[in-house]
Amino acid sequence: MGRIWRALRLGMKSLLLHKLRSGLTVLGTVFGVAAVISMLAIAEGSSRDALERIRALGATNIIIRSVKPSDEAQATGGRPSRILNYGIKYNDYDRIVETVPTIRKVLPIREIRKQIRRYQYFLDGRVVGTTEDYADFSMLEIDRGRFLTAADNERFQNYAVLAATTAKTLFPYEDPIGLSVKLGSDYYTVVGVTKERQSTAGTSGSLAAQDFNKDVYIPLNTCKVRFGEKIVNNRSGSMEAEETQLSQITLKVGSTDEVRPTVPIIKAAYEPWHPRKDVEMTVPYDLLVAAQQTARQFNIILGTIAAISLLVGGIGIMNIMLATVTERTREIGIRRALGAKRKDITQQFLIETVVLSGVGGVLGVTLGIVIPYMIVYFIPDQKAFVTPFSVILAFSISVGIGILFGLYPARRAAMMDPIEALRHE
């Protein structure tokens, strides 16, 4: 240990004789390590954000959603129908519940776009007719009051639960609990307000990204009676009518192992009755698996790109050490003449290389941890997460590259002939 300590002090002294050169050499490693940590942090943050949004849909859930058919599919007997009738029917709901044995819970949903009013305040939001299980399925938390109950649904109550943004917009100065909001031509008593909730991820299929903060939740039976199944829209002098019984059914199975075997059974329960493809299925578990694979590939690609900068830093270290060997040829000859062995010379130059790469690694780790936080501060929508693995990986690679690229200069110094080294001017 004493010999290593002396070699370390001698190495530091030699490097400090050329501060600018050593500093510039260290910078290559600093930026390389910082790039590895920062890029992996951004990749990890983005992938975690996407995965959390998908997990919010429920890994054991299967979502069946009504989808407006294409223009070709809308035609009936060669002519388009005046009332577009599509989507999930109550018969589909009953058939699925009765024939799929792995279902543990089922959640029917009817969604209607409506203007929500309270005196002079109004908001264009989403009216959701549903049951008491909606809060559990969608992971909604109650801020004040309560959520809908089974009794509300059975008694066709005119009760409403407001989402966070809806409550703030309609009741900027009041507590909404016990007060009323107007949906269409009817008034609904507010019984609860939910906390703010992050939007769910959209998919390229039937499931769009959902903003839960502009919703109003009412009992499904009340929605069925008050709004009916037909929705008429007047646009630019023309009338469009649509008829939909249920917008979505969310099914929960017992475990993730039951998800994939359940999918074909559910399809067999509704597909024969929907030849126009007006019902589509989304399986969050499959989305989650695909997103995890994409995240791993993304991390590998970004890590590889960042590691190239570390490689450039290693080449810089080799270059500076080769120059150092040439400059210190006479010193090497004197040490060999005084009894130093080849392994001592190799050790000496390797220690100097490790000092360079180690200092660069420590500074790079510090910078690599700071940069993601700066990015998140200036770009709030961007997510970043520094993992201990990325820090250890980047530092280990920097030291490893330092040793790897320092071996050749150290070996070249050790193999010098002492007599020729002493003659060097």
From TrEMBL:
Keywords: ATP-binding, Cell membrane, Hydrolase, Membrane, Nucleotide-binding, Transmembrane, Transmembrane helix. It comes from Aquisphaera giovannonii. It comes from the Bacteria. GO terms for molecular function: ATP binding; hydrolase activity; transmembrane transporter activity. Its EC number is 3.6.3.-. This is Macrolide export ATP-binding/permease protein MacB. It is a multi-pass membrane protein. The chain crosses the membrane at residues 20-43, 300-326, 349-379, 385-408. Residues 304-417 form the ABC3 transporter permease C-terminal domain. GO terms for cellular component: plasma membrane. The lineage of its organism: Bacteria, Pseudomonadati, Planctomycetota, Planctomycetia, Isosphaerales. Residues 22-257 form the MacB-like periplasmic core domain. Belongs to the ABC-4 integral membrane protein family. It is found in: Cell membrane. InterPro entries: ABC3_permease_C, MacB_PCD, Macrolide_Exporter_MacB.
